[in-house]
TrEMBL record:
Domain called Solute-binding protein family 3/N-terminal: residue spans: 30-253
PANTHER family, per the entry: ABC TRANSPORTER GLUTAMINE-BINDING PROTEIN GLNH, AMINO ACID ABC TRANSPORTER PERMEASE
Signal peptide boundaries: 1-19
Native source organism of the sequence: Deefgea tanakiae
Name of this protein: Transporter substrate-binding domain-containing protein
SMART domains assigned: PBPb
High-level lineage: Bacteria, Pseudomonadati, Pseudomonadota, Betaproteobacteria, Neisseriales
Domain of life, per lineage: Bacteria
Matching Gene3D superfamilies: Periplasmic binding protein-like II
Keywords: Signal, Transport
Family named by the database record: Belongs to the bacterial solute-binding protein 3 family.
């Protein structure tokens, strides 16, 4: 597992950051990055070593390296992400931050560095299109975005909330629920864990309910900073570093393997 020594790379900033312009960041020789400390595998704090690790942390380090500045990590909660950018408490945010049309009204975003979609795993032919979910009995992760999405799109659908994916898969395989909803790559991996004798009876839907794009957040109108972050992300893709990070956290040997369905592109994902 990739770790960052506290003394070398993690400094918790308690003062307000200066305006998040690229010029100011380079002049200061450091970039204040808002991150989470309890959102595995994207970012988490090791209680013993007091080091941050995760997919987001690795990308934060890669961006800081390419800007030739020191990363200063400042931990935040989800509700802090936009306010702290607008108040210049952080220069950028890399914290499981999905880009949405509503959020783009308040802050700017980079090209996506993680992309996934939401699909259903069920018996073959049971859900031919998304409208079929309206009358289904669907397993979803407890308190998840998938649960919120189902309630918004199909308020009459019956939901069963589970703590983790293996529990949902058991319910689907046993016929307790009609299907399970989650990230497309996770659903594909789950199908692969069904016993071979049954596996052919199940399928991951061809349709997707939504698309989730994680991006780096930054204050609005910082076009030069946005371009520099995008260039750093694209360089990480071109050099192979982005794929290596993905494999570290989502590859075949990781705790939750997922197929990579995207590449970081100069044009916005």
């Amino acid at each position: 597992m990739f770790r960052i020594g506290t003394a070398l790379a993690i400094v918790f900033a308690f003062q307000f950051a200066q305006a998040a312009s690229l010029e100011a960041i380079k002049s200061n020789g450091q970039i204040v990055i808002g991150v989470k400390d309890s959102s595995p595998p994207f970012s988490q704090m090791d209680a013993k070593t007091r080091t941050l690790t995760g997919y987001d942390i690795d990308f934060a380090l890669g961006i800081a390296k390419r800007l030739n500045v020191k990363p200063i990590f400042k931990t935040l909660e989800s509700e802090n992400r936009i306010p702290w950018l607008k108040e210049n408490k952080v220069d950028i945010v890399i914290a499981d931050f999905s880009r949405t049309t509503e959020r783009e009204k308040e802050v700017a975003f980079s090209t996506g560095y993680f992309v996934t979609d939401t699909r259903v795993l069920a018996k073959k032919g049971l859900f031919k299109n998304e409208k079929d979910l309206a009358t289904g009995h669907i397993a979803v992760p407890a308190g998840s975005s998938e649960a919120k999405l189902m309630r918004k799109l199909f308020p009459k659908a019956k939901l069963a909330e589970f703590e983790d994916t293996p529990e949902m898969l058991k319910a689907v395989a046993a016929g307790v629920v009609d299907g399970m909803l989650g990230d497309g790559p996770v659903m594909m991996a789950s199908q692969g864990k069904i016993p071979a004798a049954q596996r052919g009876q199940f399928e991951v839907s061809e349709f997707a309910l939504d698309l989730k794009i994680l991006s780096v957040g930054m204050p609005k109108n910082e076009k030069t900073l946005q371009a520099a972050v995008n260039n750093a992300l694209v360089d990480m893709e071109t050099s192979g570093e982005a794929l290596a990070i993905y494999n570290r956290w989502f590859g075949p040997q990781s705790s939750q393997p997922m197929g990579r369905i995207f590449k970081i592109s100069p044009s916005r994902n």
